[in-house]
Design brief:
Elements: H1 13-26, E1 28-38, E2 41-50, H2 55-62, H3 66-74, H4 83-101, H5 108-119
Antiparallel strand pairs: 1-2
Helix pairs in contact: 1-2, 1-4, 3-4, 4-5
Length: about 160
């Protein structure tokens, strides 16, 4: 159930911490990964991993909107001051997961997006929401005459002419 407009959605710090912890525990999954072969059969080992935590998922677990979480973490309005560090820690845990995902080639674009939008990474003008985003420095190829071919290796005594 989402909070009513004008009412404080989160009021009990202990309950909020318990809901946050339950959310992160709910992200834990098990999978079987191949570890080798024996007698022509694959051997699998059970591995525990964390499915990606998200701001939307945290909001659902707390029964609020993503925007409400952003407001609470900033301490805007008449929010309970004791909730600010609790929400900030939860956001930090989510950001940590996505920062680690930057090292994974398949997940890096999604991680950049999540970090920009939800955590203000790469945004200089505001804490979150708008800005120039991540900057990628691209080195252009050399122009015409500056391009030099690398000579093909030839064994001694070989004459191409």
């Amino acid at each position: 159930m989402m909070a009513d407009r004008g009412k404080l959605a989160l009021t009990d710090p202990e309950q909020v911490e318990a809901q946050i912890e339950a959310y992160f525990l709910s992200r834990m999954r098990k999978r079987y990964v191949p570890t080798g072969k024996a007698d022509g059969q694959m051997i699998y080992e059970e591995e525990e991993y964390m499915a990606p935590p998200t701001m939307a998922g945290l909001a659902l677990a707390l029964g609020v909107t993503r925007t409400t979480i952003l407001y609470y973490s900033k301490g805007e309005g008449n929010r309970d001051e004791s909730l600010i560090p609790i929400i900030a820690r939860a956001k930090g845990r989510i950001a940590e997961w996505w920062e680690e995902a930057l090292a994974n080639r398949e997940a890096s674009n999604g991680a950049k997006f999540a970090l920009e939008v939800n955590h203000g990474y790469g945004r200089e003008d505001r804490e979150s929401g708008t800005g120039d985003g991540f900057e990628v420095n691209v080195i252009p190829p050399a122009a015409g005459k500056a391009i030099k071919a690398i000579p093909k290796w030839q064994p001694e005594g070989y004459d191409d002419e």
